[in-house]
Write a structure and sequence with these properties.
With 304 residues, the protein is an alpha+beta fold. It is 42% helix and 14% strand. It folds into two domains: 55 residues, no CATH class; 192 residues, 2-Layer Sandwich (60s Ribosomal Protein L30, Chain: A). The strands form two sheets. It has a five-stranded mixed sheet. Strand 6 and strand 7 form a beta hairpin. Helix 4 packs antiparallel against helix 6 and helix 9 crosses helix 10. The longest helix is centred in the first third of the chain and has 23 residues.
Length: 304
């Protein structure tokens, strides 16, 4: 009896199992890798990234141990304008901290102004508000000026006289801010809202001085239409934006910071940050102006 010879198909019909096993193994390895990548701890990654960034930028970072759990993400330090500044143990903090006497003065001015102008406050034509570092008396321009004019009206006299009587009892520096709506000016005297707002602020300063406030305490600033309180779309909104603010600052440094940016868009925390930065700059070396034959140059002394 002769043996049956295997056909070619019968000899190779099980080879697909090896390829299938290889495919399953690779697929399992792929899913393991994907899972490990997706489960990276964000807190660890952030700490490592910030540490490397400090090395390349030359920033003095302290390398803390990497925690095992998730960590809180820190606020973006680029948003310095309006974020809350955390208190520091730096002794320079006491330089920009409101003492009891200064706090009482601002509180007393606020109390006296609210008591004196109860009716105007109730009508929404005048408001009194305060922060830790300054106080604001905001007056609608219609109470003080005729339309398109920067000369205080006769009706403005008793209002400004009463404000001067309150402020005259204190030595706080103050400045007056003028604002307009976005309607363009069509006047030879005031070619733009810049001139109108600045002239109105100066007019209020002049009247406060007339009623007894020392001129060296005051300054006038005009912001035109560029710091609106509300939208200018409606007539009511434009009316609210035509206003004058009398800002009573805690001290001269606060006033300088406020006039640099305008009280409408800055917080007291931001002012404190600005003052802190200026103190650090002053301590790093004073900047001097030196006149030479070739012109004026500026030099900075090295900190001792």
């Amino acid at each position: 009896m002769s043996r049956r010879r295997r056909t070619r198909d019968e000899q190779h019909n099980d080879r697909w199992v090896v390829s299938y096993a290889d495919f399953i193994t690779l697929l399992l390895a792929f899913f393991v890798v994907m899972y490990s990548v997706s489960s990276v701890n964000e807190g660890k990654f952030r700490i490592v990234s910030e540490s490397l960034e400090g090395v390349f930028r030359g920033v003095d970072y302290s390398f803390d141990p990497i925690p095992v759990g998730d960590i809180e993400t820190r606020a973006d330090r680029r948003d310095i304008g309006l974020i809350d500044q955390q208190p520091s143990v730096d002794p320079r903090e006491s330089v920009i901290t409101l003492n009891d006497e200064e706090a009482k003065e601002l509180q007393q001015i606020q109390f006296d102004a609210k008591k004196r102008f109860q009716e105007l406050i109730a009508d929404g034509e005048l408001s009194v508000s305060s922060t830790r570092l300054w106080l604001e008396i905001e007056i609608q321009s219609s109470l003080l000026f005729a339309s398109g004019s920067a000369i205080p009206s006769l009706d403005a006299d008793p209002i400004l006289e009463a404000i001067a009587a309150i402020l005259g009892r204190y030595d706080n520096p103050l400045h007056v801010e003028g604002f307009t709506d976005d309607r363009p000016m069509q006047s030879d005297l005031y070619p733009s809202n810049w001139e109108l707002s600045a002239a109105r602020a100066a007019g209020v300063v002049r009247m406060l001085n007339h009623f007894g406030v020392a001129p060296e305490r005051m300054a006038a600033v005009g912001y035109g239409q560029y710091q609106p309180k509300v939208s200018n779309i409606t007539a009511r909104g434009r009316s609210k934006n035509r206003r004058v603010k009398i800002i009573v600052s805690r001290d001269e440094r606060v006033r300088r910071a406020l006039t640099s940016y305008g009280s409408e868009f800055i917080s007291d925390d931001a002012v404190e940050a600005i003052l802190r930065e200026r103190i650090e700059t002053e301590q790093s070396g004073a900047i001097k102006q030196v006149e030479t034959e070739e012109g004026v140059i500026f030099t900075q002394d090295s900190a001792e």
